[in-house]
Amino acid sequence: MKAEIKPYYDTNRKRLADIVPLGHPFTVYIESTRYCNFKCFYCIHSTRDIKDGEFQKLGYDIKHMDFDMYKKVLSQLKELPKGIKRIVFSGLGEPLMNPKLPEMVKLAVDSKITDRVEIITNGLLLKPEISDKLVEAGITNINISIQGISDKQYENTCGIKVDYNELVKNLTYLYNNKKNTQIYIKTIDSILKDNEEEKRFFDMFGSISDKIYIEHLVTMQQQMEDVKSVVDETKNFYGEQLDLNRKVCGQAFYFLQIGCDFDTFPCPVPGVPKSLSMGNIRESSISEIWNGQKRKNLLKIMLKMKKDTIPACKNCTCFNAINNPSENLDSEAERLLPFFE
After folding, report:
1. Beta-strand relationship, 141-145 and 117-121
2. Which of 90, 190, 204, 244 is the most exposed place for a label (fewest CB within 10 A)?
3. pTM (whole model) above 0.90
4. Does the keyword Lyase apply (predicted)?
């Protein structure tokens, strides 16, 4: 096996408590589209065709991001202080559903805002032509979520039929023609039923990826109540034991998600309600939003250990499950609070 079995996070990070407040986000997620070709059981997209279901309750239109406004987003990100570590195309939809994605990637790379421009994708649309366009555009990382190791598992997980052999063939082409692009392939533990299936996963994809891992299923979207019954919430995304007493959402201090409607959110969770928006880029600049009072107020609530008083954050376990130890702010909350007064 060529790939390194390793979770996808940087273990050599500065302690977040030592560097906040930040003059810029470290990670920027850009929701290039809300269309998705899957209806995974753990995702709110599984409810999109249900009248008055959880997806419809969000009040979001299914559409692509406006391309001209996207260019405005890049120009505003470029005006922030240097230090954005990565731009990631991810959100409520499958990024490759937007036909302009390779062009969006190229513009982000050419803007030189960051050294890392990535996508998180289910990989089904990574045909050779698209893979070539992304590589030529300069994408640095392609993170692929595998939803099973057979046609049947894909149907059970995603609600659609796929040609599994064709999927593996396309990902093999990507790996063989990736140039400097790093390929991370992962699946979730709840899909693989035993050690034999885990071995098959590593055997299938370990030779066509740079890093590979079996991640732990977590409850990303709080609306998905049925998922909670099958999730072990004592473990994080990477299968490590959690500190269940954590109160402060570290992601909110370094994260910026930009949605299709250009609302801005303080976390990577797809499909968060508009009530959590810190401001809309059509009305205020990214700099004004990042340094604005609404964001500061949200961070103060976090540092006062009152996260659950924010309706969109109440009972959220994702903030804990996707963290790593360097992001834990609880013990420093009292010291950090005056920075946001």
Report:
1. parallel
2. 244
3. yes
4. yes
